[in-house]
Write a structure and sequence with these properties.
The complex is a heterodimer of chains A (326) and B (354). Chain A has 326 residues and is of the alpha/beta class. Chain A is built from 13 helices and 14 strands. Chain A is globular and about 60 Å long. Chain B has one domain: ABC transporter involved in vitamin B12 uptake, BtuC (Orthogonal Bundle), CATH 1.10.3470. Classes of the chains: A alpha/beta (326), B mainly alpha (354). Chains A and B meet through helix 1, helix 4 and helix 5 of A and helix 2, helix 3 and helix 7 of B.
Chain lengths: 326, 354
């Protein structure tokens, strides 16, 4: 006769066997110690096969560029509740709807959804609010702090973790070629540039604004003194009074495409900082302000760097422009 | 022991009639129903989740068998402490509201409405943002100090020449709460982004990070504080009839008031320190308990605790499972339920006063 107890035992044995096989596969891997950005030394698989990423833009996108597809990722949702990997569609072409990457939630990520994927490595950031204690109970977990890895440093760390250094070397070679192209076509050290953004009535400027900032600095452009004074890796929030100090020969502003913003939204945000802002900025008055999507401009992505390199070439090389009076 | 049935009550007497207990039948039935509801909710919390665990596997795991390390983790480390913390926090917040409503004679008093939770939140957020190295163990103490300061300030400011006014108490509480929230916002605006994210996750009022350590802390505090609150329940009954009558009946009014404020603040502060501010539970649960059964203060406190436990545990289960893997904080769902109830109560209170 069927008994619940016998059924429970049968199911338990079957589950135990499959779990044991999976666990054996995990433990069969070579392990190595890795010290993460919180100073914790964690034994991780030498060649992780089932990675869950808990930050889409900072970890998932670089992993995809390195040729590693995580089994699960943190993501955002549209107003209709459709999950997406921020910036990934335009930077890598990979998203939840066209890959086997499972959506594991946003902030906090769903730890049960992470556990259900049976990962052999979890990569998280200090920004993610899923408790580290619970993640560690699932699989070896590394906390990677992107603020400590400027200048595409996350790619370096992730290449080390996933053993994809040769792929990274190829990406770097391509980028070096793109920068050389800019330097060949533009006398960069005589031209000043800056990236500004209006937020809640104040203007923000970064020492180096993501990928765009990196391209501009690597290419050798000059920045306003006020921007050079901002510590590396940091940004400053300023009032409208400081707008002239942020002016340059060419100005860049950005808008979000994942929320369906347009260049007008970037201009409106600056208008909120200072009505008639364009009259106070040389670059804007002379039609030398370039407004581009924030995804490519801010993401730590080699594809983004390439796109930005050609954007700079297309907008600044081989044209006449009005230099800012010095 | 003998049992006598009286209209709507059961009276239990010891053999020599040295001790007699008069229990309202409907109140006892409501308590039993709520306990059954809580047991069912706890069972649902064990079964439902993003990690698919069938019933036989769950039963095997609960009986101590290790089916897999992952399932052990999900059941023992994620789901069980989370469900228990939600219930404990709900009971504590609810009883905090009941104590504050009794001592102020104001049916709108709620720790999250009159700034007590915000006071606790400000001190904890300050600790997270300004002193990130500070151990989380000191959070309950910091939260208690913050909550007590705000409670004292609201009491002092609302005590006019003609004595305390319930509406003035609420309005001053709401004003002070807004002021404290703006200080917390300033702290969040200018703090280091990662510390701010940590503080924001805590401020959302979720129990997703619950651990067995939290279960231990909450249960230890609730045993002490709820026991004292139950001891004060006879004096609470006297206070319901007004201060003069309570004094006439021999109640130590000043001492009881002080005790009720300290316990109300303590319950709100400890639970806020562990899971962040979860609003409106202290407002909704005492009213729900009163609607379920008209009882004496002791049984009302029990019903209130059970209602609060049910409310937060249900909010947490819905928040983690309804849109999984998107996780909604329990505080968001209790606020969605609490705001319309608060508005209805405020309108009724205003009609009664004018």
């Amino acid at each position: 006769m069927f008994s619940l107890h016998a059924f429970a035992r049968g199911a338990a044995v079957a589950a135990a066997l499959s779990a044991a096989m999976l666990t054996a596969a995990v433990f069969a891997q070579d392990m190595r110690p890795f010290t993460d950005d919180t100073g914790r030394t964690v034994d991780i698989p030498a060649a992780p096969l089932r990675i869950v990423s808990l930050h889409d833009l900072v970890i998932t996108v670089p992993l995809l560029e390195l040729g590693v597809t995580p089994i699960g990722s943190h993501g955002r949702t549209t107003a209709d509740g459709v999950p997406f990997i921020r910036s990934s569609e335009v930077l890598t072409g990979v998203d939840f709807d066209n890959s086997d990457i499972a959506f594991v939630g946003n902030l906090p990520a769903d730890v049960e959804a992470v556990a259900a994927l049976e990962p052999d490595l979890i990569l998280t950031t200090p920004w993610q609010s899923a408790p580290l204690e619970q993640l560690e109970a699932i699989a070896p977990t590394l906390v990677l702090d992107d603020s400590l890895h400027q200048d595409m440093g996350m790619h370096e760390v992730l290449a080390d973790i996933t053993g994809t250094q040769s792929r990274l070397a190829t990406l770097k070679t391509r980028y070096d070629g793109q920068i050389a192209q800019i330097k060949r076509l533009i006398d960069t050290n005589t031209i000043s540039v800056n990236v500004i953004q209006g937020v809640d009535g104040q203007v923000l400027s970064w020492h180096t604004y993501g990928a765009l900032g990196k391209v501009l600095r690597d290419a050798g452009f000059r920045f306003p003194e006020r921007v050079d004074a901002i510590p590396e890796g940091d940004y400053a929030t300023m009032s409208a009074e400081e707008l002239p100090a942020l002016d340059a020969d060419f100005l860049f502003a950005t808008y979000r495409t994942d929320t369906l913003e347009t260049p007008d939204d970037a201009r409106k945000a600056l208008e909120t900082v200072m009505p008639g802002y364009c009259d106070y900025l040389h670059a804007c008055r002379e039609n030398q302000m370039i407004v581009i999507p924030r995804e490519e401009a801010s993401a730590a992505s080699y594809y983004g760097l390439g796109v930005l390199s050609y954007m700079v070439v297309a907008n600044i090389s081989g044209r006449t422009f009005v230099p800012m009076p010095r | 022991m003998s049992m006598v049935s009286e209209k709507g009550h059961i009276i239990l007497r010891t053999s020599r009639q040295g001790l007699a207990l008069r229990l309202p039948v409907w109140g006892m039935a409501a308590s039993a129903l709520l306990v059954c509801g809580l047991v069912l909710l706890f069972a649902a919390s064990m079964v439902i989740g993003s990690y698919d665990i069938d019933l036989p596997t769950l039963l095997a795991t609960l009986s101590g068998e290790t089916v897999s390390k992952s399932i052990d983790n999900v059941v023992w480390q994620f789901r069980m402490p989370r469900a228990l913390v939600a219930m404990l926090v709900g009971a504590m917040m609810a009883c905090s509201g009941a104590a504050l409503q009794n001592v102020t004679g104001n049916s709108l008093a709620d720790p999250s409405l009159v700034g007590i939770s915000q006071g606790a939140a400000l001190t904890v957020v300050s600790a997270i943002v300004v002193f990130p190295g500070l151990s989380p163990d000191v959070r309950p103490l910091l939260a208690f100090v913050g909550a007590l300061c705000v409670a004292s300030l609201v009491q002092a400011l609302s005590a006019g020449q003609r004595g305390p006014s319930p509406v003035r108490f609420i309005l001053i509480g709401i004003g002070l709460s807004a002021f404290i929230s703006s200080l917390t916002s300033a702290m969040l605006t200018y703090g280091n982004i990662d510390r701010v994210m940590s503080a924001l996750a805590w401020l959302a009022g979720g129990v997703n990070a619950a651990t067995w350590r939290d279960v231990f802390i909450l249960s230890s505090w609730s045993i002490v504080l709820l026991a004292v609150l139950l001891l004060l329940s006879r004096s609470m009954a006297a206070l319901r009839m007004g201060e003069a009558t309570a004094i006439g009946l021999g109640a130590e009014v000043r001492l009881v008031r002080l005790g009720l404020v300290a316990i109300g603040v303590g319950l709100a502060a400890v639970s806020t320190a562990i899971v962040g501010p979860i609003g409106f539970v202290g407002l909704v649960a005492p009213h729900a308990a009163r609607r379920l059964a008209h009882t004496g203060p002791a049984l009302h406190l029990v019903l209130t605790a059970l209602c609060g436990a049910f409310l937060v545990a249900a909010a947490d289960l819905i928040g983690r499972a309804a849109f999984a893997p998107i996780q909604l904080p329990a505080g968001l769902l209790t606020a969605l339920l609490g705001v319309p109830i608060f508005i209805a109560l405020l309108r009724r209170s205003a009609r009664a006063q004018y």
